[in-house]
Design brief:
Layout: E1 7-11, H1 15-25, E2 29-36, E3 39-46, E4 49-57, H2 65-76, E5 84-87, H3 90-100, E6 104-111, E7 117-122, E8 128-133
Parallel strand pairs: 1-4, 5-8
Antiparallel strand pairs: 2-3, 3-4, 6-7, 7-8
Amino acid sequence: MTISLSHVHVLVDDPDAALAFYRDTLGLELRYEVENDGFRWITLSTPSQPEIEVVLSQPQAGHSKEDGEAIAALLAKGELPGPLFRTDDLDATFEKVRAAGNAEIIQEPTNQHWGVRDAAFRDPAGNMVRISQA
């Protein structure tokens, strides 16, 4: 038996701002964009791992009004986990994100005591996004 990762969900409050960050700034490729009941799901993947898709969706999509509002409140507080990416050039990736101006810089490239060199940002929705040197 084998198992592999296929999708990672990232909740966003503004699909257009999220698309600009994940596609235009980080370089993910748009695969699908679906609208349903007034909400959008946007699926992207990295060129190096097209089989793993990042799905951007709104907190209210597919949830009750109450649950959607509770999830949106957690998103607004920055309390939801975000994705972790790897890059072959952390410094160049960091500078690209900084120059784009569509993410809050949390941590510049840093050598961590556990052996990883990484940087951290908050995407336009407030999700923590970490990028490490491959």
